[in-house]
Amino acid sequence: MAKNNFDINHVEEVLTKNNYIPDENISTVMFLAISLKKPVLVEGPPGTGKTQIAKAISKAFKKDFFRIQCYEGITFEQIVGEWNYQKQLLSLEMSKENKTEEDVFKEEFFIKRPLLSSFINGNDSVILIDEIDKADEEVESFLLQALGEKQITVNDLGTFELKNDLIVIMTSNSQRQLLDETKDRCLYLYIDYPTFEREVEIVKTHIPTGSTKLIKKVVKTIQKLRNLNIAKNPSIRATIDWVRGLIILGKEDLDKNTFEETINVVIKNEDDKKKVLENIKFK
Description:
Elements (H helix, E strand, L loop, with lengths): L7 H10 L6 H13 L3 E4 L6 H11 L3 E6 L6 H4 L1 E3 L1 H13 L12 E3 L1 H7 L4 E6 L6 H13 L1 E4 L3 E4 L5 E6 L7 H6 L1 E4 L5 H11 L5 H15 L9 H13 L7 H7 L7 H10 L4
Parallel strand pairs: 1-8, 1-9, 2-5, 5-8
Antiparallel strand pairs: 3-4, 6-7
């Protein structure tokens, strides 16, 4: 990628070519993140494409992809790596038999997890730290220290320096408030549900042979559902699945009967279903 051709329009273009339709805000923030080499904190409702942006950036810019899926109780070892105790013990036993000394605190005895692997990877990389709000503050602090100083220290093994042009993308569903230090070190991106026009374009990208009339009808209905204050709003993925399902069923339109027959594709809660059927009317 030639530097003189790298601008916001270029980011938008390569993402679009890789089936991710960004809006101006997404293109701008990702351009700045790449240019400034800053982590990005992505927030927004579930199902709006927060995770997908990291995969799309990796594919669009031909970078290796690594992922940490955070959850309550995730540890340093599961993020960075851990010693292979079985291999260490086996090596010590063999050294005793051979009457030699073996150093079992070497890199060959260490199992690397995604963060360390992304740091020392020989190719430029993207690491997605998904749902960081589910990890505790201690893990969050370590992650930001490592990403801010671009170093990872492992006891008995030493310090690893960042070896590639790493793009860090963290997502949060705001399950808890993140540390101010996290926010200070990141660019911030909020991804909301798309506009009607953008969602139509997203669906067309994934289903290029789909009828424009059907896609627009489905997207219009989905956006009505999201305004009903139901427990679980339909994701963009649900919109795509609904259109695909209707095509498989040979439907060319979304009328009242088809809507009622296929609503379970996008509604995943019985109370939500009752509310939707009561409030969505077809002419």
